[in-house]
UniProtKB/TrEMBL annotation:
Keyword Membrane: no
InterPro entries: CsrA, CsrA_sf
Signal peptide coordinates: none
GO MF annotation list: RNA binding
Biological process per Gene Ontology, one example term: mRNA catabolic process
Keywords of the record: Activator
Record-given protein name: Carbon storage regulator
Length: 67
């Protein structure tokens, strides 16, 4: 039902979560697994049809489309 993804993020790094339209409630749960002075480790649990995209990948993809 829900899949999990573990990501590390540093200051100013983000993620974009795209949830498709649905007639039912969609729950995305984010858990902080660990923190250091410069990095947070996150676990994101979401339905399989939910896209979780690192912002640097999204930006790179948009720049590639513009070329």
């Amino acid at each position: 039902m829900h899949s999990g993804l573990i990501l590390s993020r540093t200051k100013d790094e983000g993620i974009t979560i795209k949830v498709p339209p649905s007639d039912t409630e969609t729950i995305v749960h984010v858990t902080t697994l660990s923190c250091t002075h410069s990095r947070a480790r996150l676990r994101i649990a979401a339905p399989h049809n939910t896209s979780i995209i690192r912002d640097e990948i999204l930006k790179s993809s948009k720049e590639g489309d513009a070329a």
